[in-house]
């Protein structure tokens, strides 16, 4: 089969590449349409995956799109005004009747209240209907045209921003549509309430049109099934495929070599995106109160890293806090395995962070790195149940201080006490297990062979 995958991102997620490589190994052709800058190549190979980059710098809207959206806004405004006028008129009539007719008016008012509810409901469904008629943006239309050009047997979209593209292609080509929800997009904490409502309605309307739905853990799967009245999505974890030359049992010591950390000192590692909402400032404050033989390495990317460096200076711990730029994926686990423990500090700011299953969790597991994690449901389910590390509430600086001291407590055997569980359980969290789930679903999407007479 020829499969076209679509992602709205410029940085291609490892999950997408793992899925594409798995399907290619199963004999399918995969073409990935991704976002891109004008200075990036329009076509490239990432491993065995064909990638075409469709720049989102195309004009946002054509004249026709602007006209349609203008009249759409006007129509929604008119519906709202008519609804409001109807409610006010009904309220006035009810008030007058109440004064004139007493108890008779009470019965009449109940009927009027029911009528007002019908007006409100009609307005609500009218607005949703108008929203449903909104055309694809120029960028969405470009993605749809390029997908149709490749004449795929299946279209596989990653995340809600490109789901409308997938539905448009499915309707035109009459082919299966696979929706891969990496998160509950309408619950992202940085969105406004209006944006959340619009995105929720969009996902609720479009998800039932998908042939199959994937998501990242059982908590998101259950929420999607409940909200959108669809069969429970298939779970594919954000597991990883380690490089073939990586052995977690080898001795890896890259951080000590790079930062001249004494061999008898301990290293706690945070890796990933530096962002204010990830609890990193509180982690630093708590770490500053730990004993002097513990070092914190922060390896990743993001502008917030500069603020963290200033915070380390203010706390007087620059001799124990080391910053390392993100490294290529094929080198990552060699660095990860060079620490003594890893930390996942995410606070539960919204649905996605509360039920997160972050990439670093699976990276730590494959590197056999003991884990200190905030007490969130999926992290508790994996780290706590499997004895991969310490799970506890990490809300205040004192919590981080206690957690760091606990995972490295020599009286309990230090972080090394979790190594045996990691060695025994890592294979259950390997990409090969998830790959089998993906292959099984795609086998069900293949057309049945034609029987000869």
User: How much helix, percentage-wise, in residues?
Assistant: 40-55%
Q: Major sheet: size, sense and barrel closure?
A: 8 strands, mixed
Strand order of the largest sheet: 3-4-2-1-5-6-7-8
Low-confidence parts: 123-133
The Rg value, from CA coordinates, equals 27 Å
* Overall geometric form: globular
End-to-end C-alpha gap: 25 Å
Please tally the helical runs, counting DSSP H or I stretches of 4 or more residues. Answer: 17
Overall pLDDT confidence: 89
How many distinct beta strands?
14
Structural class: alpha/beta
User: How much beta, percentage-wise?
Assistant: 15-25%
Protein traits:
alpha/beta, 8-stranded mixed sheet, 6-stranded parallel sheet, 453 residues
Characterization of this structure:
The chain has 453 residues and is α/β, with parallel strands linked by helices. The chain is 48% helix and 15% strand. It is built from 17 helices and 14 strands. The protein has helices at residues 14-25, 63-101, 103-132, 138-149, 163-173, 193-206, 218-228, 254-259, 280-287, 304-315, 329-336, 351-354, 359-366, 377-386, 397-407, 419-425, 431-445, and strands spanning 2-6, 29-34, 43-46, 49-53, 154-158, 177-181, 212-215, 234-235, 266-273, 294-301, 321-325, 341-344, 371-374, 389-392. Strands 3-4-2-1-5-6-7-8 form an eight-stranded mixed β-sheet, with helices on both faces. The protein has a six-stranded parallel β-sheet with strand order 11-10-9-12-13-14, sandwiched between helices. Helix 14 (377-386) links the parallel strand 13 (371-374) and strand 14. The two termini are 25 Å apart.
């Amino acid at each position: 089969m020829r499969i076209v995958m679509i992602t709205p991102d410029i940085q291609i997620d490892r999950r997408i590449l793992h899925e594409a490589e798995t399907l290619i190994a199963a004999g399918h052709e995969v073409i990935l349409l991704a976002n891109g800058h004008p200075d990036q190549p329009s076509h490239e190979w990432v491993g065995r995956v064909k990638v075409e980059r469709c720049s989102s710098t195309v004009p946002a809207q054509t004249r026709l799109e602007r006209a349609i959206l203008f009249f759409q806004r006007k129509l929604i405004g008119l519906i709202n005004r008519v609804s409001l006028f109807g409610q006010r008129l009904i309220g006035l009539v009810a008030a007058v009747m109440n004064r004139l007719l007493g108890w008779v008016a009470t019965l009449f008012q109940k009927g009027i209240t029911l009528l007002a509810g019908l007006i409100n409901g009609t307005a609500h469904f009218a607005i949703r209907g108008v929203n449903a008629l909104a055309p694809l943006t120029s960028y969405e239309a470009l993605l749809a045209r390029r997908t149709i050009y490749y004449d795929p047997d299946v279209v596989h979209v990653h995340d809600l921003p490109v789901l409308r593209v997938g539905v448009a292609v499915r309707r035109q080509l009459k082919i299966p549509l696979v929706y891969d929800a990496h998160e509950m997009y309408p619950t992202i904490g940085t969105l406004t309430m209006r944006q959340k409502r619009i995105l929720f309605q969009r996902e609720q309307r479009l998800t039932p049109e998908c042939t199959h739905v994937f998501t990242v853990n059982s908590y998101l799967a259950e929420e999607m099934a409940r909200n959108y009245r669809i069969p429970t999505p298939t779970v594919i974890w954000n597991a990883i495929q380690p490089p073939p030359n990586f052995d977690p049992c080898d001795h890896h010591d890259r951080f000590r070599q790079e930062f001249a950390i004494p061999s008898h000192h301990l290293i706690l590692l945070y890796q990933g995106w530096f962002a204010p909402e990830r609890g990193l400032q509180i982690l630093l404050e708590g770490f500053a109160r730990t004993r002097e033989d513990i070092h914190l390495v922060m390896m990743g990317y993001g502008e917030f890293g500069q603020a963290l460096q200033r915070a380390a200076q203010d706390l007087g711990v620059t001799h124990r806090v080391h910053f390392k730029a993100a490294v290529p994926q094929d080198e990552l686990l060699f660095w990860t395995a060079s620490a003594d423990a890893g930390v996942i500090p995410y606070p539960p700011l919204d649905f996605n962070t509360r039920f997160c299953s972050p990439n670093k969790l699976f990276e730590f597991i494959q590197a056999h790195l003991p884990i200190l994690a905030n007490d969130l449901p999926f992290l508790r389910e994996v780290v706590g149940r499997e004895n991969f590390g310490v799970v506890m509430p990490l809300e205040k600086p004192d919590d981080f201080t206690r957690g760091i001291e606990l995972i490295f407590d020599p009286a309990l055997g230090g972080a090394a006490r979790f190594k045996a569980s990691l060695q025994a359980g890592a294979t259950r969290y390997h990409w090969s297990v998830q790959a089998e789930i993906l292959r099984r679903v795609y086998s069900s999407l293949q057309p049945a062979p034609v029987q000869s007479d």
